[in-house]
Amino acid sequence: MSSLEERALEFAAAAHGSINQTRKYTGEPYIVHPIAVAEIVRSVPHTEAMIAAALLHDVVEDTPVTIEEIERAFGPEVAALVDWLTDVSRPQHGNRRTRKHLDLLHTAKAPPEAKTIKLADLIDNTRTIAKHDPGFWTVYRREKQALLEVLKEGDPTLWRRAARLAEENAPEGAAKSQGRGFSASAR
Predict the structure, then answer these.
(1) Taking CA atoms, which of 15, 32, 118, 141 is between 20 and 30 Å from 129?
(2) Catalytic: which of 6, 28, 39, 61?
(3) Which of 5, 62, 133, 167 is catalytic?
(4) CA 140 to CA 143: how far, in whole Å?
(5) Coil, helix or strand for 22?
(6) Is 62 noted as a catalytic residue in this protein?
């Protein structure tokens, strides 16, 4: 692990820990999610900045840390990636569907490196949500399928993996009946 990665891991663990954030469903310390996302990114071509951003991807969104603090601590490249991975919507922007649409438009403009990290985030979240919350899974799956459409510039291996997970975890017949199924060979 590089010095940048070590610093990012320590920073993210401290930021999420400072608010006692835990993983929904499992109660584990939240840092297990960013670590899992970083490991997924590590499995495909990546840069040191991508691994650092994967570790930090939820810090600005979920904790009091600002993007300016990320830039001071990790430089403009990591900060730019984290900024692309941070939701732009706020509660005052409307209901969940409206907010997720605003976030989707933001993500669509992201560079391929940020899209690769977002794919890793989707993969890890899919495993957790499909296993622990089948009711919410149908909502999340729809959002994920829309995101997959704008993440095609990310790593192709991760894109296929994310699409396959959406299909494998679909409720019986849902992909066909909704006409929205994604095939791992669609790329």
Answers:
(1) 15
(2) 61
(3) 62
(4) 5
(5) strand
(6) yes
User: Which residues lie below 8 Å from residue 41, measured CB to CB, with a gap of 6+?
Assistant: 50, 51, 54, 116, 117, 120
Between CA 35 and CA 33 the distance in angstroms is 5
Tokens for 110? 């992201």
Positive or negative torsion for Cα 83, 85, 86, 92: positive
Amino acid (one-letter) located at 169: N
Name the DSSP letter for residue 56: H
**Residue that has been written with the tokens 């794919």 in this structure:** 119
| Strand, coil or helix: 29 | strand
Residues 6+ apart with CB under 8 A from 118: 85, 107, 110, 147, 151, 154
Give the Cα separation of 6 and 42 in Å (integer).
14
pLDDT greater at residue 178 or residue 22: 22
pTM: 0.89
d(CA 102, CA 90): 9
Is CATH 3.30.70.20 the classification given to domain 3-186? no
pLDDT tens for 127-159 read: 899 889 988 988 899 899 999 999 999 999 999
Average pLDDT, the chain: 90
